[in-house]
Amino acid sequence: MTKIGIVGGGLVGSLLSIYMAQAGFKVDVYERRPDTRKMKAIGGRSINLALSNRGWKALEEVGIADEIKELAIPMNGRVIHQVDGTVDFQPYGKEGEAIYSVSREGLNNALDALSMSLPQVDYHYNAQCENIDIERGVLYFSNYKKKKYFKAKPDIIFGADGAFSKVRLALQMRKRFDYTQDYLEHGYKELMIPAGENGTWQIEKNALHIWPRRSFMLIALPNLDGSFTCTLFLSFEGKESFENLKTPEAVIEFFQKEFPDVLPLMPTLLQDFFDNPTDALITVRCFPWTYNDKFLLIGDASHAIVPFYGQGMNSGFEDCRVFNQLLHENKGEGDDDINWANLCKEYEDKRKIDAEAIADFALKNFVEMRDSVADDNFLLRKTIEKHLQEKYPDVFTPTYSLVTFKDEIRYSEAMRRSKIQDKLFNKLFKTKNIAKKWEKGKLTEALDKFVEEYKELV
C-alpha cells in the first residue's frame, strides 16, 4: 500500500487526508499544533470563514457536508454601513444563493474527527517539521511535548502546511524554483460584537456586514451563539493606521469617528484591541509545485491569498477535489499502477493558472470592498448586472457569481469572462447621463448590444 505523508493538519491537510484514505491509501498527518479539539479556543487569529459552492462541493464528496451545515450560517448578501448610519443591503446572487459563515475551529475539528475515524489515517500532533531531505524523501520532526525527535519516509509527501510552508522552503533551496511573497500595507485585528439578550444577534444575522471607509474597513460575520466576529483591516503605518492607535483614548476616538453605530455594540473593544495580535496579509506565488515524483505543494503552501474574495479555504478545498478527480482518472486496479510523476504534473499544470486567477481576484476585491461598495457607479453596475442575469440567465453571470456560485467554472475562466465584462461595462458607462437613462428605461438598446457583444466574446 502506498504511504501518503501530509505535512500540515489544517483545513486542507485534514480534507486531503480523508480523500486519500477513501481512495485506499495509508495516510499519516503531521501537525505541529496540539489536538485543537482538546484545547480552549485562542482568540485573535480565528477569522470566520466564508464557505461557498466550491468548498461545499468538496465536503459533499467526502460525506461531511450535512454535518458542517449544522455549524454554518447563510449570508445572503452584504450589509453596508455608512458613517452617517445609513444601511444598505446588497444581495450576493440570485434568490437562494448564499455564502456561509463557519468557524475555522469548528470546521477543522469536524474534519479531524472524520479523518481520524478512518482506519487508514494516523495523526501525529505536536510534530514540528525541522528538516527535509528532498532527495531521499525523508521528513525530520521534533515533538516538544514528548521531547523526542523522529523521522518518516512516506512514498508521497504533500506540503499542506500553509503560507509559511516548511516543505516549500525545502523546495526553494533548489535551482529554478520561482517564489514571491507580497504583503499588503494593511494588517488585520480581530474584534467582537457579543450576543444580545437571550443569545440574539444585535445586527442582521444572515449577512456579511461591511463598514467601508475608502482606505480601510471593518467587517463582521455571524456566529451560532449570537455574536459576530469582526475584523478591522487597517494600514500598519500612516495617518489612519495601527501605529496611531496605541492608547485606549485613540482607539475610542477612532471608532467614534469612523464606526459610531457599532461602537455601542462592542463593550470589550479595548480589551479585544489590545489583547489580540495585529497580523499581516500575504500573497504567495511559487512554481513548480512538485518535485522528484514525491513532493507536491497544495493549498496555501502553493498559493496563499488575501481573504477578500472569501476563497482561500474554498480554493484549497477545490485543490483537494481536483487532485482526487485526477487521481481516480489515473488510477488502475491498484495504487501501484499510478504514475505519480504524471499525476502531480497534470495537477500542477491544471491548477496553477486557477491559483493565479483567484489571487488576483482577491487583491482586486479588497479595493471593491473598502472603496467601491458605497460608490454610485458601482451600485448602478450591480443593478444592471442583476437585470442582465435575470433577463439573459443562459448568457450573463456576474463575476462574483462566477467565482462564488459557479463551481463548474474554473477561476481562470471566470477571470477571462470578468475582463470581458469590465471592458463592456467601461464602454457602457461612457453613455451620457447613464443613471437617468437607466431609471427611465432608455438603456434597452445599449444593453441588448452589450449582451450581443458579450455572447461573441465569451
Produce the secondary structure layout.
Layout: E1 3-7, H1 11-22, E2 26-30, E3 49-51, H2 53-62, H3 65-69, E4 73-75, E5 77-81, E6 87-91, E7 99-102, H4 104-116, E8 121-124, E9 127-133, E10 138-143, E11 148-152, E12 156-159, H5 166-172, E13 178-193, E14 208-212, E15 217-222, E16 228-235, H6 248-258, H7 269-275, E17 279-287, E18 290-291, E19 295-297, H8 300-303, H9 312-330, H10 340-371, H11 376-391, H12 399-404, H13 411-428, H14 434-439, H15 444-457
Helix pairs in contact: 1-4, 1-9, 2-9, 9-10, 10-13, 13-15
- Average pLDDT score: 94
Based on CA inertia axes, which overall geometry fits?
Answer: globular
| CATH architectural group of the largest domain | 3-Layer(bba) Sandwich
Low-confidence segments = none
Number of helices: 15
CATH superfamily placement of the largest domain: FAD/NAD(P)-binding domain
Q: Total domains, how many?
A: 3
Structural class: alpha/beta
How many strands in all? 19
What is the CA-CA span between the terminal residues?
A: 46 Å
Which CATH class of the largest domain applies here? Alpha Beta
Write down the Rg.
Answer: 23 Å
Biggest sheet: strands side by side, in what order?
6-5-14-15-16-13-17
- Report helical residue fraction: 25-40%
The description of the largest β-sheet is: 7 strands, mixed
Approximate strand percentage: 15-25%
- Looking at the structure, the CATH topology of the largest domain is FAD/NAD(P)-binding domain
